[in-house]
Design a protein that fits this description.
One of its GO terms (cellular component) is plasma membrane. This protein is an all-alpha fold. It has a domain at 69-241: Orthogonal Bundle (MetI-like fold), CATH 1.10.3720.10. 73% of the residues lie in helices and 0% in strands. It is built from 13 helices and no strands. It has helices at residues 2-34, 52-58, 61-92, 99-111, 114-125, 131-138, 153-177, 182-190, 195-206, 208-224, 227-232, 244-254, 258-283. The longest helix is centred in the N-terminal third of the chain and has 33 residues, at 2-34. The protein starts with a helix and ends in a 7-residue tail after the last helix. The mean pLDDT is 86.
Length: 290
């Protein structure tokens, strides 16, 4: 009986394993192999170069700029989207007139395609007639081109990600908050516990598994969402909003240097793996599943 259940279990898992190996692990291994060679062009075959592509990164100013930008972008978007999502979940985690409409309005940006979101925000940022400029003019401030200035382009792109991702993460926090036993709230109220103390000592520890899940997804999204960069800035001006994944795309498909793009991809995979593993190890002591 045990052997039959074991066979059933592996039979159910086999299709997922096949897809995972075929479309994830094998391409990753092939990318690693390609990163050790030069890019074949015409009749010139690929030549083994070892760590040559990785050494090239150390002297590549665009790569170094993309790494710094990606770090800043990830830090800003991850923290802001998680905190905003938690705040929105706490706001709509109670009964009042219009709570359904408020939840829907918070979640609506999530269902919009990122290309459409980018075009909406391009209108917001448009100097002279955009929504933000109209507000600035109303208060007597000068016009500003947020998406076209090196000092603000990266943060303008980050704002789009935060606006789109916060509503998605809010759903998970809202579901987690609804699992907190009401008896704990009643007991805390009887003891005269303040709302902040109850949130910090009871609610936050109980929703830590959800927080870990959301944080892992936020990290992945911070490195994989670049559709709005295509529409809004194309990595400019002067590489001010160049992100690592967009640089990989440009290197591989615009300049057709697939070997160097493969090396850049391996760096991105290594970063995501290190951050993901680090999150689980660091957060493990704070996560309580029971």
């Amino acid at each position: 009986m045990v052997k039959r259940e074991w066979i059933y279990a592996w039979a159910l898992l086999l299709p997922a394993f096949v897809f995972l190996i075929t479309f994830t692990h094998l391409p990753a291994v092939q990318t690693l192999i390609n990163s050790l060679y030069t890019t074949p062009k015409g009749r010139r075959a690929a030549m083994f170069t070892g760590l040559g592509n990785y050494q090239q990164m150390l002297s590549d100013p665009v790569f170094l700029k993309a790494m710094v930008n990606s770090g800043i972008y990830a830090l800003v978007t991850i923290l802001a989207s998680i905190l905003l999502a938690l705040a929105m979940a706490l706001l709509v985690h109670r009964s009042f007139r219009g709570v359904g409409l408020m939840r829907m309005s918070f979640f609506t940006p999530t269902v919009l395609p990122l290309i459409a979101v980018a075009n909406i925000w391009l209108f917001f940022y448009a100097p002279g007639f955009g929504l933000i400029d109209q507000i600035r003019v109303f208060f007597g401030l000068a016009s500003a081109n947020y998406a076209g200035q090196p000092d603000t382009a990266l943060y303008a792109v980050a704002a789009v990600t935060i606006w789109k991702e916060a509503g998605f993460f809010m759903i998970f926090f809202l579901a987690a908050l609804q699992t907190v036993p009401e008896t704990l709230r009643e007991a805390a109220a009887i003891e005269g516990c303040s709302r902040w103390t109850f949130f910090r000592r009871v609610t936050l520890p109980l929703i830590m598994p959800t927080t870990l899940f959301v944080s892992v997804n936020a990290v992945i999204n911070a490195f994989r969402l670049v559709d709005h960069v295509f529409v809004m800035t194309k990595g400019g001006p002067d590489n001010a909003s160049m992100l690592l994944l967009y640089y990989i795309f440009e290197t591989g498909f615009r300049y057709w240097d697939t070997a160097y793009a493969g090396a850049l991809t391996m760096v991105l995979i290594a970063i995501l793996a290190a951050v993901g593993i680090g999150q689980f190890f660091l957060a493990d002591k704070r996560v309580h599943y029971r």
